[in-house]
Amino acid sequence: MALEALLAKLALVVGGMVLLSTVMVVDTRRSVAGVWRWRDRLGEIWPHLVLFGAVLVLNRVARTYGPEVSWVLGWNITPLIYRIEGETISVVQSVSSPEMTAITGFVYIYGYAFLLVFPLVAYFLLSDSEPLKHTLVAFVVNYAIGVAFYTIFVAYGPRNLLPDLVDPLLYDEYPISRLLTAQVNANTNVFPSLHASLATSVAVLSWGTRDEYPYWPLLAIPLAIGVYFSTMYLGIHWVIDVLAGVCLGTGSVALARRVV
Amino acid sequence: MDRPARVGRRLFLGSVAAALAGCSTVRSAVNGEGTNQVSLSIKTTPDDDDPYAIRIARHLSQHLEAVGIQTEVTPMRTEQLLQSLLVAHDFDLYVARHPGGNDPDFLRPFLQSGFATGDGWYNPFGLADLDVDRLLDRQRYEQGGRRRATISDLQWEIARSHPFAVVCHPDIIHAVRADRARNWPPDGIRTPGDLLGLLPATDGSLDELRIAVRDPRPTRNRNPLSFEYRDRGLFMGLIYEPLARIDGGRLRPRLAREWSWTDEERGSSLSLSIRDARWHDGTAITASDVAFTYRFLSDTTLGNGDVPVPAPRYRGRTSLVSGVTAEDDRTVRLRIDASRDVGRRVLTLPILPRHEWEPRTDPTAIGDIGLQDGVTQALTWENPEPVGSGPLAFEQAAVDEALVLTRFEDHFVEGVIPYERLSFRVVPSGEAAVELVIADEVDATGPLDASQVPRIARADDAALLTGQTDAFYHVGYNARHEDLNNPRFRRAVSALLDRETVQSEIFDGFASPAVSPLRDGWVAPGLEWGGTAPVAPFPRDGDSLDVSAARGEFETAGYYFDDGRMVK
């Protein structure tokens, strides 16, 4: 089945990327040592993991019922966003080419998944459990605030309001990928961009661990910027969604560092 | 296509400042102080729900901005949009598709002033035009050539009064595979009969016929009375049988075996004999179910409410019924307050099982249709497991994912449906639907938009079905609005629609531009599309809008222009 095949491919590709990066970014001795300490590590972080799991479940529920609540509240901010930023997004798309679409499509789906999974693996292997706790708590804050906004506001992305200017490039080129993204999110949830916010959190945290993993920021920061660009290039998010996402992602890390 | 200069820097900076200062000041910051620029909002559906409507809205919005009217396009989910237009009447302009009708009498509830307070596709415009009212009433009691002449006059009167502007009739487009099922209707799947007349491509019968659809509404709600969740009613037509269907312009018997007409002093009456048939739950269908249905659809409180609460979706047809009685177990007498030509439409209403619907006459507790009084449970019920008497029965559904119907073995019609199950899978885009046809995960798609045609044409395993429809895209005007209450202003707005460009660029040619909501033989002489609109023609300057000519129309309506902005 098309969707299952796509999911399997996602798991394989992202798994491969994580494995490869672990070999490159984390030195082998540390990896082996870290793996052996898994029991201690879980003992330290289980409350954070439970919290993270709970927020993911809440997120799932909110994305099913959230849109109904949004429509009852009736705050449709799509025209306001358009009035503020106009057709800026079509500038981003002016560089469109099939290669660019292929690259941004890859970054949007696989690069993003990698950005979220890799720090969990890499920080698990550190002897200091703090970066891992920061990451989990920052993710929790991102999701909690993001979902609150999604529930309160109705906001459609540029591809839904400006189809004459913005081609839904991802879905034209890779129609089946739409089956996946439709599973993950409703089309009225674009403000703020959780793609941008989570990528930002990971990038900011990567800078904080540059002594332990000097190569990681070199990978994480450009990839985060690639995610920003991809979401706009593909017509999924407005510039404002991405800016709000960057603020949310940065704020979430600050909050995580304060509470942990 | 002509496009006004993109949002100007002044407007852009003004908006940013306004947004920072709070939304309430947007208007004054953008407009400057002291003037009163005309501003209109256009409600429609997003690209995901209907790729045509949002593009028409954008087309109109760009021309309105070019003329000097400030506009705002608000995309809304289909059900939300319909509630907003058809229940709350909360809009300035909207762009939407009306399912149309094969008999012009659908215009009576759509435009008659007496329907302006009800819910559904019933005079959302707030139009109160006595000439339109009179012609609508007159055609109701007429037949043949005389009615045809009245319908022509009516179309001209509507064009003059201009409560809405028809843009075009879209073509229907499907992708199908021919290797499992054959006998696909070449001009598209429009009626339940089109899905029932399929044949297996190989020997034996199919266990499942699979269709990918874009519209998720039947997975959320299966109430045949709901208007927000129904479009053409294809799903409901498979589950619920009417007394008769109109097919090829003629009445064909379904639950009614036969009938005889008697002319009355005003209108006519009809004696029908009901077939020996069963509901999907196994109980027998009687004349009492039929009589109940007509009473119930006319007033879902069954006379217990302070005011009658008719089923909005069927109000046009139930308004033609003046009485119903079950004379014995198998005979029903219907009194119809209309000519036979108009009144026969009454027989196409879905017949409901009395035991399922009679308990739902109480006022609704949640009131989720809106804040109006007089909403019964019958209208808000999701009807999760519909019990009808159609050739297919409900089996299961998953919200926003799938709907499965199964063959009803006790159905009265001879001839076997060549598949045991009919499954509908909801897909998020037309592209995905076509890909699933090519991958042999489905046998056909539901209606697609024209952008899919090249993809279908390139695929070896998929064939294209396409044909014309009664549906029409239109721009609706709210006559309660301070500017739109002026028919001259409405016509000036309609003149901004470049139907030729809309047809070629938005519909890729898969639509017929039109100014009349009617089709085929019904279009009034002189109102046919002949390359330009016979009413409110588009002021063309080469390929684009002649702005000064367009402004001239608004000036005639009493507006003037100040620094490129339209004020009054």
Features:
heterodimer, A: 260 residues, mainly alpha, two-stranded parallel sheet, 13 helices, 2 strands, 78% helix, B: 568 residues, alpha+beta, seven-stranded mixed sheet, five-stranded mixed sheet, 24 strands, 22% strand, disordered N terminus
Describe the structure in your own words.
The complex is a heterodimer of chains A (260) and B (568). Chain A has 13 helices and two strands, in the order αααβααααβαααααα. Chain A has 260 residues and is an all-alpha fold. A two-stranded parallel sheet of chain A has the order 1-2. In chain A, helix 6 packs across helix 7, helix 6 crosses helix 11 and helix 11 (194-208) crosses helix 13 (239-259). The model of chain A has no long low-confidence stretch (mean pLDDT 87). With 568 residues, chain B is of the alpha+beta class. Chain B has 20 helices and 24 strands. Chain B is globular, with a radius of gyration of 25 Å. The A-B interface holds A 1-2, 67, 71, 76, 78-80, 82-84, 86-87, 154, 156, 159-164, 168, 171-172, 175-176, 178-179, 181-182, 187-188 and B 6-7, 11-12, 15-16, 19, 23, 26, 41, 46-48, 51, 54-55, 58-59, 72-77, 80, 427-429, 431-432, 434-436, 439, 441.
